[in-house]
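Hey team,

Filing this mostly as a record. A colleague (T.K.) asked me to run one chain through the structure pipeline before their review meeting, and I want the input and output archived in the tracker in case anyone asks later how it was produced. No errors, nothing strange. Just documentation.

Input sequence:
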Amino acid sequence: QVQLVESGGGLVQAGGSLRLSCAASGRTFGSYAMGWYRQAPGKERELVARIDSKRMTEYADSVKGRFTVSRDNSRKSVYLQMDALRPEDTAVYYCNTVPVKRPWGQGTQVTVSS
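Output structure:
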């Protein structure tokens, strides 16, 4: 059973950067594809970045070229480097498996001011 704890969010001005971290528990972490999801107020949760067990990555068009997902299996962690942030990136960010198979963590709030 993988449990997930996100951190690293905060308030940043447009054009700034943040690095999110996700700490996972569970013996088989390395075999899962992991993703970063976000949910903005009044909107559905969406997948923005994915990294599989072979470190192949995919991104939503809205973040492509600005966000970078990575993982460290020895630390059972997934990261999201977010650069050139925009106000529309404001959301609560979560990590989970892809597809979603685990309970959601508390997420981490990212707020981008214009």
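Quick notes for T.K.: Strands lie at 4-7, 10-13, 18-24, 34-39, 46-51, 57-59, 67-72, 77-82, 91-97, 108-113. The CA atoms of residues 12 and 70 lie 21 Å apart.
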